[in-house]
Amino acid sequence: MPFAELGLSPPVLQGLHEAGFYRCTPIQERSLPVTLKGKDIAAQAQTGSGKTAVFLITIFENLLKRRPLAPACHALILAPTRELALQIQADGQLLGRHCPFRLAAIYGGVGYEKQLQALREGAHIVIATPGRLIDLMKHGHLKTDTISLLVIDEADRMLDMGFVKDLQYILKRLPPFHRRQSMLFSATLSPRVLEITYPYMNAPVETAVDPEKLVVETVRQELFHVARAEKFSLLLGILEKEKPERVLLFCNTKVQTLKVAERLMANGYAARGITGDLPQSRRVQLLERFKKGEIKILAATDVASRGLHVEDVTHVINYDVPQDPEEYVHRIGRTARAGKEGKAITLCGEDDVYSLENVENLLGQKIPVVWPEEDWFVPDKADSAPVRRSSRGRRPPAGKKDVVPAKGAPPHPKKRSGRGKKKPADSQKGVAPKGR
């Protein structure tokens, strides 16, 4: 559906067209006819689906009809992370360039003065993370009685990050639900999300995509079954063949994330690792370098990646299959944004099979399997003791590696026939005893 058929105001439509948006995405086509009528909505929408435009267009249209506006907060958008709040602010400034509204992003980890100044100047639309918002509310810097529009973005993420009590604190201090319009967006409308938010919404219309639509069509998914010991070797081969411009690589643990990033750097790749333990200043620095293209591969844990929004991510690589199947949807939603194409590659080891089954059950489909050729396995330059590959392109099982005799030692002894016969004591000369 073209945006022009929605009856949008000229300033909003002009902003959309200048940003290059002419037709609705599926979530926009389903949601906007509901929200533009002023109804509450609970929408299942993954990252990159166009959900941000849904609530921004709705807010702009609502506020344009109420001009002139008092210099106060009329729309509150809750986001789980600083990065997401800033991204929403940037999108709002882009799409609303012809609308006379002031936007302010409120988040922790930085000083207060700039944010307080934005509130004092009468920001009409406030995008905030829960912690900093509550802090400002308690000190009387943000009045909530003028708020008539509420957005809860990435609700499932917010709950995963432990913001349940914060969210309830905020919702209890807003005008009653019948005096405002509420819009909730979540990758999954789980019972937990609905249980916590529904008491504060006015009979919301549920808009849930079909299972096969959890992943946008422009994401090409590939699955590689690979032995755990060969994962990194295959990763190097994939990177050589794909030659990706910008990669988000996901691991299940902090230790694995940093280890993979270090090994990639040792192999000549512009890679870095980001985990939840990283200081905020360092995290911001790495993200900026990643956005500028100085870092080509950013390895991350799911916790560290929450709210991470970077345009033009060409590839998402799951070095590990996520244990929570919903994380798979979140991960690969970071590529193929805004209608662009992207690729999601998953490396499935022997320890990942049960997690893979859960992922495919959630998707309602099998992920297409790719069988790598022998030359896809590239030796790790950081490995001081490379393992000889078998003729079928697989490493020998653990404990069956070739043993190199010490200098001057005789060749490996052949197995003797017969049972119970002991090998001569000198038959292992030059070979290190086990456990040494």
Automatic annotation (TrEMBL):
Residues 231-378 form the Helicase C-terminal domain. Pfam families: DEAD, Helicase_C. Residues 389-398, 412-422 have a biased composition (Basic residues). Residues 382-436 are annotated as: Disordered. Residues 1-29 form the DEAD-box RNA helicase Q domain. Coiled coil: none annotated. Keywords: ATP-binding, Helicase, Hydrolase, Nucleotide-binding. A motif (Q motif) lies at residues 1-29. GO terms for molecular function: ATP binding; hydrolase activity; nucleic acid binding; RNA helicase activity. CDD domains: DEADc, SF2_C_DEAD. Residues 32-207 form the Helicase ATP-binding domain. GO terms for cellular component: cytosol. Belongs to the DEAD box helicase family. This is DEAD/DEAH box helicase.
